[in-house]
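The following record pairs a protein chain with its ligand, NAI.
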Amino acid sequence: MKITFFSTQPYDRESFLEHQSNPRFELVFLEEKLTEHTAPLVKGSEIICVFVNDMLNENVIRQLSQLGIQLIALRCAGFNNVDLKAAQAHNIKVVRVPVYSPHAVAEYTLAMIMTLNRKTHKAYNRVREQNFSLNGLLGFDLYKKTVGVIGTGHIGEVFCRILHGLGCNVLACDPVKKSAVEAMGIPYVPMNELLPVCDILSLHCPLHETTRYLVNSNTISQMKTGIMLINTSRGGLVDTKAIIVGLKTGKIGYLGIDVYEQEADLFFQNRSEQIILDDTIARLVSFPNVLITAHQGFFTQEALDQIALTTLDSIMQFTKGETLINEIRK
Ligand code: NAI
């Protein structure tokens, strides 16, 4: 059985080949992103495996269905890039990896905060040039700072635990309250109460119709001046143009993003020899108080192993006609 993988990098191939032991599976690794133009490459497969920036809109799903695809296996947690209604209409099942390592992303979020705050990225470069001055590197104690966590699912809960351990004053915001979070003494507060008091705000909710542009000019205006905003979830949660205005006025004091709304055209590729036509990211890169990374929050050995194991398990369940434990249902 042929399984076509889109958007693969060497580390994807290595981890899937390491964990794949079924002689009936033929894994075909493509570097191409899945789009309307590359969909015909699935020919001969019944299953495809895709990642965060592969395009699975109505048109692509129709093409996949015509080509005989019966299962879409997402090797990630978020599924905002899939038109689930179209998949259902074409009788294509969709599975994902709901949990692989919440620690990977939660710990990475802390790394972004620490880097922006204590400016270790700048210090590293300075010392390499024999500049041992501390001017411009002043940070603040995280201890007792108020941190707002939007979304306390798998990742948000681990992040709350880390912040709690650091002695931060943590406030949570999620329509679903978790007793494990409340047991840490962390209260749930509505967004309008959280925004004006947070020194740091971190996003850990999924992207869907109601969370798109959760951070916009209106919500930014309610934030404490000089706030540190961190987004390791999905780019579409923030209105980047409004963020740039906030950075220019100083309302936003620091920005750390591991995701970007238009990342599909940039991330996971080396574009260092090319002209970047996206003026928004070019502007963001120019701010001294902005840290951008290319969707690497998930990128730990433990997470890669778990992603491969769970995805291969789902494929096995599908081929045996068993219940798909990680199926996404509309
Ligand atoms: P999860 O599904 O366990 O938790 C999401 C939480 O967000 C739930 O508790 C839900 O009730 C809450 N939520 C939904 N709408 C909300 C709203 N309007 N306001 C506040 N909370 C809301 O998801 P998990 O595993 O914690 O992942 C969170 C997100 O992190 C994913 O959706 C994905 O976009 C992103 N992610 C990013 C990665 C990276 O490499 N940077 C890797 C993995 C996930």
